[in-house]
Design goal:
The complex is a heterodimer of chains A (about 750) and B (about 70). Chain A has about 750 residues and is of the alpha/beta class. In chain A, about 60% of the residues lie in helices and about 5% in strands. In chain B, strands 4-3-2-1-5 form a five-stranded antiparallel sheet.
Chain lengths: ~750, ~70
Amino acid sequence: MNYTIALAGNPNSGKTTLFNELTGAKQHVGNWPGVTVDKKEGIYKKNKNIYIMDLPGTYSLSPYSEEEVIARNYIVNDRPDVVIDIVDGTNIERNLYLALQIIETGMPAVIAMNMMDEVEKSGNKIDCKKLSELLGIPVVPIVARNARGVDELMDAAVFAAESYKTPKFLQVFDENINSAIDAIADILEYEHSESGYSSAEISEYSDSQNLWKAIKIVENDQLVIDTLTENQKIAVEKIITETEQYADGDTEAKIADLRYKFISGLVKKTVIKSKTGHVETRSDKLDKILTNRILALPIFAVVMYILFACTFSENFLFIDGLPSPGVWLADVVETAWGALTDTVGELISGASPVVYSLVVDGIFEGIGAVIGFLPLILILYMLISILEDCGYMARIAFVMDRIFRKFGLSGKSFIPLLMGFGCGVPGIMATRTLDTEKDRTITTIVTTFMPCGAKIPIFAMFVSTFFATGNKTLITFSLYMLGIIVAIVVALLLNKFVYKSGTSNFVMELPRYRVPTFRSVIFHGWEKVKGFAVKAGTIIFLSTILIWSLSNFNVDSFNGVNAAENEDGSNLAEMDESFLASFGNAIAPVFKPLGFGEWKPAVGVVTGWIAKEMVVVTFAQLYDDDVTPEYLEGYFSKYDSVELEEFGFENGEYDPDEAFDIYSEVVLFEGADENALHTMKQDIKTDIAAYSYMVFNLLCMPCFAAVGAMRRELKTFRRTGGAVAIQMLTAYIVAFVIYQVGSFIA
Amino acid sequence: MTLRELNPGQEGIVTSIGQKGPLKKRIMDMGVTPGIKIKVIKVAPLGDPIEVNIRGYELSLRKTEAENITVKM
């Protein structure tokens, strides 16, 4: 027999640990239609006929959050064969609240009483047998972390699925509410018999379903009430109003209260507490330090520094030249990919220039753009999952809430935004840790306003050429500040005009500190890497190929003119005659109000979408009057062989063939040549226009890799398109204001 | 008095939870129901939100949310 088992439970109850244990972490991650919540499905590793469905972690089945609606719709509409509810034994009262509601759905259910080792350690005892008798469903003690009791749990679940027994209706509510539930269930049943079902067809299941619906209707659950016919609505409305009067005007609250009262009764009968009252645990002591009034912010700063440094630092632990794990791994991957590209390049060196260029500059560059980010994502996400699993992430939100609430964001948004200074891709992927869809969407949009590592070469080149005599540091710093201010303003505006209905609250559990498991950390890092490569990879790859095609072909590529002119007989076009140049010409007027309405800067913006530092390389290619072979030779003649080797010349010998690449990717990236590319001043005439150009590149659509990551988090192309439109509009408006106001003052 | 007025370390018994609506339901779903003991553990370093202990676990709430919860000492 094939069975589907749904896993339900509170956040932090060990649900993911159990899921990984059951499935061996071989799983399929999809997303629920229309919402940004992952759906995880897996197959039980000990029986291929059993599907495990991981529901979102929830505290309740009320219709207030998307997670709760998803969890209950799955249980009630998709009807798994059995629901396993994971209960954290160390926090039994609140966890049983969800258990009661799962029993109310009438689905066969089993409780997995998790963290029994911690319960025992604390000296408490839970009588699972007694609890099982009182609840009418099996209660199996387990320790998900080391798989204790998991086989017994699965036996109980399979048995429950085979016998498919609806749990009995528990006496949770008072007389007033019970009679309302009965009356409404009667109305629902009457409709059933009217609709032509024979009495045999009105099974035990539909009875229990009616009971569940009736409870929800008494709770004034709009989603369930909306499924009723007009006649039913009129009939139930009277009952709802009457019940409400008896329940002090708030039946919902009364029901929540009664459920907790029932649970208190259960706990009294089944849990023996070793000590009374609140005892200070090791976790409490740790928390006293980590969220201490004076120490909390410095500790937070150190943790954030470590997070950032491990991922992006070139001088890790303040040791000059020591790469961080992230940078080291990225270098390894890039070197390996570069070697592979060279090998393939040599293999096909006999092929036509078009094929060669497509493979080396198009395909390999495109794939390279995807895999270059993987090490950063892996390292950052492993670190984030340590923070999540150990419980510090919730404290970050607790400590930072006060500041970020002012911008309509959550304290947890700090991490994606901070990471945005290194690279937007892992930053955007970190938005998944945020709690609401609103927070995730807004943070995703504003994270790329941060000046990431790839935007630095643009600033360096422009600042050295245009602001050589000014305060270079101040100019660069002002761009950093501008990125942050724009992010805040856009977040505020989105909050005010797009998400005006979404009131936020901060009723949040602060889970106990726990040592994260190695397995879960590796698993989360790997899951992110896979998700990025698969979901974002296509968009990055295709976009890179597209821009490559546009910049290498023109009309003459297809009528033989190029082939006749090119020495090697290929039909490739020079970049300044390519389709991209024509495109740049067409869109250039749009940028006129921003101070750079010429085609070359416009092309720079477009190639910047492949990778932001490409703006610099493109400029070197397009303003090549400045970078003649003679100029390069003169420039590098100042340096001795040791310095030349540092620049990247092999054996420290000047090589004219290498000179252009080294000049554009080393010298210009670092802004080391103040005389660089002076001809670009013909197109970008004033300092304020140069500043405006930097601002536009800082804020406009990020590179395709980041857009791919946005697509992964925002789920649909429509929402991704909307986010990109907001970014483009923001860039345009800010650059426009800066150029116009700046020019006016000057 | 309201939960907001309790100082860290002080305990109270919940008597009522504000106005009907999603926030009240959420707070009650988390276990804050009339008659239950609630203890303020600490205030966040920047002065808001606060951390309370209820039913054996730690919950954080903003001060504006704590204002809706009345308690007796």
